[in-house]
Amino acid sequence: MLFAPVSAPLALLFFSSCPPQQPRAQVLDAATGQPVPYASVGVQLKPLGTVADAAGYFAPQALAGAQPADTVVVSCVGYAPRKLLASTLTEGQPVRLLPQTNTLSAVTVRPGAWQRRRVGHEGSFSFTQYNFHLNGDADPARKLGREVGTILALRPGSELEDVHFFVGNNSFRGVRLRLNVRALDADDQPAASLLTQDIHYQLPDGAKGWQHLDLRPYHVQTGQHEHVAVTLEWLDGTPDPSRDWQVLLMPAPLNPLHRMVYRDKSADQWRSLRASLSLYVTAVSPRG
Hints:
By secondary structure, the chain is mainly beta.
């Protein structure tokens, strides 16, 4: 194929027609003024939203489908969620989150008084899989804020020592996931986070098989809750350009006794499926 040379005036026309840089907003700590990395930004009860980057910046254009009167929820572990109108984000003004302090009591494991056990699904074979990547995800940013997890039954007063989850196939690079442990609301849906620190997991490029995250440094306590949701939220990641199709799979065999939960964005409605997501925790609990 032959190409005609481009004249200088035409080259200038191309340059002048480049779209202007899109405005960005930033999430800041209201007390210190420092950025809040990887804060979640979502339209309440709608599959619209995004995640801030490591410097707290996000693109309000990701909420373009929202109505001006829609409520946008900006949240991050360790901060009180901030609710504001979608129309205010188009101005590019910073969003300030107030730090939220959760007081935890120390848990001392004494021989005989406490029991260590695994809770969740330890299997990795399944004909059904959860895929973080959907057919409509032409833009990698489309996955930002997508969240999946499982409901676990725990004894009151438990502390989680670690979490394991299985990746069946992975064609992404630089995947960063946020682990969350949530209480359930009156409708038995995941709600407020029980964590005091933001917990991330950097998935090795192309990693498959069981992944392990040590939770002991974070002192993850579940209080008096008998059921919690343990979830993974997509924060970052890009597709492998050498692959023709993209996946990040987690086995989820159908099971009428277990419940998997998922949502497309951080403030979207939760959906449930009777399935056993390949995820389990090691919990230290008082002997009953």
